[in-house]
Amino acid sequence: MHPGGPITGVNGWAAPDGSADDTAWRRPTDSTTAVESRSGKPGGATAIPPQYQGPPRMHRPSVAVGWGPVITSGPTPRALPYQDHEALDREDAQARAVTVGVGVLTLVVLFLLLLMMVIRAGTTTGVA
């Protein structure tokens, strides 16, 4: 550790070995690019930056490796039971009628309870 505090590089980060030199974080030099001097200026002529060639091609492993999903045909599907669509429609209509009837009956009862509460509140205050 440096006596005056941690040694930091140009951008404020220390190199992995603790030195202030940030060469460990620089892009590796390629043989086709110009070598940079310590001042940061290119030492040679204009270099063409390398182009991204994309990810490497994938090759399927050999059959001997045994890799891949196991595909089986499975059992044949069984036949579904017969459905009487007209009977199902009738039962559905009956169930809908019962549901609507219960809803209407509930609304009527709630309306009557509300009406009775308003009438009773008016008679106790002497407004009616």
Set down the secondary structure blueprint.
Elements (H helix, E strand, L loop, with lengths): L84 H41 L3
What are the key terms here?
mainly alpha; 0% strand; membrane
Question: TL;DR?
Answer:
Keywords: Membrane, Transmembrane, Transmembrane helix. The chain has 128 residues and is an all-alpha fold. It contains 1 helix and no strands.
Tell me the structural class.
mainly alpha
If helices are DSSP runs of H or I spanning 4 or more residues, what is the number of helices? 1
Poorly predicted runs:
33-39
What is the strand tally? 0
Give the ordered list of helices and strands: H
Helix content: 25-40%
Beta strand %? under 5%
Mean pLDDT: 77
Quaternary structure state of the chains depicted: single chain
Distance between the termini: 92 Å
Shape: elongated
Report on the architecture of this protein.
The protein is mainly alpha-helical and 128 residues long. It has one helix and no strands. The protein is elongated.
